[in-house]
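Reading a protein record of the kind used here takes only a little practice. To see the layout at work, look at the sequence and tokens printed below.
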Amino acid sequence: MRNHKRFMALACAIASALVCAAAVPSETQPTQEPTLYQRLGGVYAIASVVDDFIDRLLVNDILNANPAIEAARKRVPTPGLKFRVTELVCQVTGGPQKYTGRSMKDAHAHLNITEKEWQAMVADFRKTLDKFQVPRKEQSELLAIVEGTKADIVLKKE
């Protein structure tokens, strides 16, 4: 019985030491910077930003002047669009979600998006990021990701 108590005490001490060691980063192990997804606050924060952003796009006069965009809005339910964009943003920022929609090129090819419309979209995106007080570093990273899709989205020359 006495050996059992000693064993339990030793096991508890070892478990406590392991928990403490795991909680305190060691000087020899570099601390990993949180992903952009984590720094943005995860899926709920990203979904809130996407919700505001898509709502802005829906009332953007420059985008609404494009008949192909207007027609697409009638075909694609807004909640579905918000879901897909949230899924995409989560994936490209390092989250666990997986984007299951079409490629940017396939999703936008028929919309004949111009540089002017692209710039209007980027301006709305910046307004949304500012509204949610997304820090400049994260804004820059997000805008770089968005810029990386431009060649697949802006297909019509003005």
